[in-house]
Protein: Extensin-like C-terminal domain-containing protein
Amino acid sequence: MKGLIVTGLFILLAYVSWPWLARHIPPALNPFAPLSVTDPPGMISRFKMKQLSTDPAACLDVLKRAAGAGYIRFTQPAPMWGKCPLPNPVRIQQFGDVRLSSSFLATCPLAVASTRFVLQANALAAQSELHSPLARIDHVGSYACRNIYHRSEGRLSEHATAEAWDVTAFRLKNGQQLSIIKNWQQPPAHAALLKQLFTSSCDYFGNSLGPEYNAAHASHFHLGMRGFGLCR
Structure:
């Protein structure tokens, strides 16, 4: 009985104090405030990202606010149907002033996660020993209607639903290039930044797979939405 009373008082206190808390908690720390692509990584932003996966309208609102702030340029192509349908695709053209080797299709949650990652990657590159922000990201796409590892049988890859992005290189504004297959181990400054970029990606995606995962990922970072912070 005492436990029920304490629980009831706690619920009442939370109910009464919530309007005050909602006004004073920063949006990034408020689990009920809309996500912003500039929110720091953490459990609250992960929770908000998971919510977006089941709310296309809310996700698109986040993406449109990010576009309005200049963090991403994207279009909304028509839905795609068939074996590997994309009911609400977006085509990412650029992240702020960071260009892409080509545009790519993505689900809205992947677009949001990728925008957040590129913002962080750009800052890390500028603060690194190489002292230069990003100019371009090279990649080999996101959407491909296939099974994992191109096997003839088995479950569909994250790429079959445009929920993963394969990044192969980062080009800096000072002209230097960080190729994942060539520079994962050397020279030291390039390798250090690549490893820092990979580690930071783990904060934004459901799974991040790189050269140390297996030989199939020696040439790229696989940045996918499934899972909850797998980082290998």
User: Anything to note?
Assistant: DSSP finds six helices and ten strands in the chain. The beta strands are 73-75, 90-94, 99-100, 104-106, 134-139, 164-172, 177-179, 207-209, 221-224, 230-231. The two ends are 49 Å apart (CA to CA).
